[in-house]
Amino acid sequence: MSYFELMGFGPKGWGWPMLMAAGMTVAVASCGFLAGSVIGSLIAWAKLSRSIVARVFGDGYTTVLRGIPDLLVIYLFYFGGSALLSGIGQLFGGSGGFIGVPAFAVGALAIGVISAAYQAEVFRGAYTALARGELEAARSVGMHTMLMFRRIVAPQVLRYAIPGLGNVWQLALKESALISVTGLVELLRQSQIGSGSTYKPFYFYLTAALLYLVITTVSTWGFQRAEDYSMRGLRRA
Questions:
Q1: Average pLDDT of the chain, as a whole number
Q2: CA-CA distance, 220 to 163, in Å (whole number)?
Q3: Exposed/middle/buried for 135, CB within 10 Å: 0-12, 13-18, 19+?
């Protein structure tokens, strides 16, 4: 079969499975990225806190998660979660055999925990870029902390953080390929299945590379539009 026949949408084509796998890649990366945004915000708050304990915890989190290989984190979540479920099963009279955890949930959580270490630094840097005078003016007029966060801090931190978040999203997208070790059929795993079934690995891996490039190109365009929108009305240096 030619490349276009193999990657077509006919009865023997692999076009639909590859597209669905690309959708799975976007889904697990998106869920992980959103989870990382929540965790990263809390870690950034800890690193900026006046509490020594919170700062030590935040610094330790970012140091450890950025120092451990991403694949090792995925293995720890997958086998650690399976060991936990197996232990719970034994408590309720189970046989104690291996109990697998949902691959999608493990993948999204692992990407989120890894991504949070990088997003925390992005949010921390964006917060330090805020004009101190605006915060002091808000306090001087009696604005309480949550209102100041909602009206001043959060919008401006997000504005300054968008470029860095775009880079972190690209990392999360590439990290999603590592989730294939848990059995999740994302883009790389589907390419492995297709190449093993047809003995044409180059066609599948080439298609996977093109699909990744399409996703990253669209993502880059989206983040650029978001950055331009957030900076509207402001004069760039």
A1: 89
A2: 10
A3: middle
* Placement of tokens 């007029």 in the chain: 141
Q: Which residues contact 47 (CB under 8 A, 6 or more apart)?
A: 54, 55, 58, 59, 62, 120, 124
Answer whether 171's CB lies under 8 Å from 118's CB.
yes
Contact 10, 203 (CB under 8 A): no
Phi-psi region of 96 (alpha: psi -120 to 50; beta: other; left: phi over 0): left
pTM of the model: 0.90
Whose structure tokens read 């590859």? 18
Residues 6+ apart with CB under 8 A from 143: 151, 152
**Domain ranges across the chain:** 28-184
To the nearest 10°, report the CA torsion of 15, 166, 116, 60.
Answer: 130
Least confident of 47-56, 117-126, 190-199, 227-236: 227-236
CATH code for the part of the protein at 28-184: 1.10.3720.10
Q: How far is the CA of 156 from the CAs of 39, 43, 50, 137, in angstroms?
A: 19, 18, 21, 15
